[in-house]
Amino acid sequence: MKSPDKNPGPSWSRLVLASRKESPAPVDVRYRVRVELEKILRIPRKDEVDWVEALITLFSPNPVKAGVAAALVSLLLVTAVTPVDNEGALESEDPLITLFSGEGEWSDWL
Amino acid sequence: METETDKDRKLVDRAREGDLRAFDQIVTRHQGMISRCLFRFCPHQADLEDLVQDTFIKAYRKLHLWKPTAPFENWLRRIAYNTGHDYFRRCKRTPVTLASRAGKGFPYERELPEEKQHDHRYQYQITEQVQFLLSHLPADDRHLLTLQYLEERSLAEVAEITGWSLSKTKVKSFRAKKKLRKYLTRYEISG
């Protein structure tokens, strides 16, 4: 059985002395520091896509103008080439128009 | 023969001109010393790495202020101490692993079991316990006593690091120790 004298409570000076003997695990922050510095200095990394830069390029004046022009030309071409016959469709569906176009007796509607 | 200070000066000159590889070498040369300093402030690996990184980023930003008349290592160490002080101000929480046991008396463990002695997760217990006790004090007092007790800095050195006058440092040290004694008594720790 242990004697209480051999197991005294903790003391501040003993804690401080023991703490001084402790040392940290090796730390290597070279890569982290480099990445952070490159961010600060705005140096694009080769292995990273700079999305902000890509978006700015995409919406910079010249590409925007060219894009809008291309979209308008495409719209005009599509409008010119595609036949739209809404009236015909309406006529065939309306019974009154069908009646007046020659089939049936118009006075039935009176 | 080229001294360590000469090597540092050359690297700093190149880094000031924008050579990041030179700064990489500065980090390689001094990160061990900086991590040992900051470990006294923060015995948690993840936070410690953040603090070491912060120290080098601050150093890079202030590189133009370093004068070759003083050793670069001392200048860097001073930045590390300020980073530690900022950490105390920013992060008033007690060490995580001890905080949950704080209400149950001081979590003192005399010796680590053999199987844990070589595991870094368990090796910082004493520093963690010391910081647990110091964490009850305001950031300035905690900083001062960390420098005095754990970094073994004299009052004159503490005064130089903190920018306080020597007499102010003496008074603050006396008062901080008095406050600490109150908590040592609470946790039944002798002086």
Describe this structure in words.
The complex is a heterodimer of chains A (110) and B (191). Chain A is mostly helical and 110 residues long. Chain A has a domain of 73 residues. Chain A is built from 6 helices and no strands. Chain A is elongated, with a radius of gyration of 42 Å. Chain B is an all-alpha fold. Chain B folds into 2 domains: 91 residues, Rna Polymerase Sigma Factor, Chain: A; 88 residues, Arc Repressor Mutant, subunit A. Chain B is built from 9 helices and no strands. In chain B, helix 2 packs across helix 4, helix 4 crosses helix 7 and helix 7 packs across helix 9. The longest helix of chain B is centred in the C-terminal third of the chain and has 21 residues. The termini of chain B are far apart. In chain B, 36% of the residues are buried. At the A-B interface, helix 1 and helix 2 of A face helix 2, helix 3 and helix 6 of B.
Shape of chain B: elongated
Tell me the strand percentage band of chain B: under 5%
Query: How many strands, which pairing sense, and closed or not: the largest β-sheet of chain B?
Result: none
Mean of residue pLDDT values of chain B: 86
Backbone CA Rg of chain B: 19 Å
Low-pLDDT stretches of chain A: 1-5
Q: How far apart lie the N and C ends of chain A?
A: 121 Å
Could you estimate the helical fraction of the residues of chain A in percent? 55-70%
CATH topology of the largest domain in chain B: Rna Polymerase Sigma Factor, Chain: A
Give the helix/strand layout.
The complex is a heterodimer of chains A (110) and B (191).
Chain A: H1 12-21, H2 30-41, H3 51-58, H4 61-81, H5 86-93, H6 95-100
Chain B: H1 4-16, H2 20-39, H3 45-61, H4 72-90, H5 96-99, H6 125-134, H7 139-150, H8 155-162, H9 166-186
Helix pairs in contact in B: 1-2, 2-3, 2-4, 3-4, 4-7, 7-9, 8-9
